[in-house]
Amino acid sequence: MYRKSYFIFTLFIILLSSIKSPVYSQEYIFVGDPKIVLEEGNYKENYNTGMYFFYKHQWVMAIEFFSRCSELTRKKKKHFSPLTWSYIYSGEYIEAIRSISELNNRKEKRLIRLLLKEITSLGTKDKLSKKEIDKIVLDKKDIIKRTRANLIVMSKHEIIDYGP
What we know:
Elements lengths: L1 H19 L13 H7 L2 H13 L3 H14 L7 H11 L2 H7 L6 H17 L7 H31 L4
């Protein structure tokens, strides 16, 4: 009984404190001049600034900073994923196709290949909006998930029938 009342009291205090000072989600803040970072910044500064512009949906600026990251290092490759997505969202599909080979994540490569195949097969001259691209991405993720489930079911049936 004591534990229950202690728990309720603690929960009440937490709720009361969150009402007085509301909790906000994390926001990426950039302070400084992007031109200075682009010219004189190191890999980390360019990556962080590129991520800021990526999350603000300023794809062209993000591409500039991620391209600078490519110039600064050959070992680190974590900037290639947001670079590829920036190319896709900005409508530069040829550049996105070129940067796929630099991605490390095999699942992400497969998803982006399917996405670009779908986008280029649409044949629209105008670039697609982020919302339209995200719908296609969700559809492709669903296709991958269903295909994986079907392969598992098929392999179970083949194992059952196996025998000399």
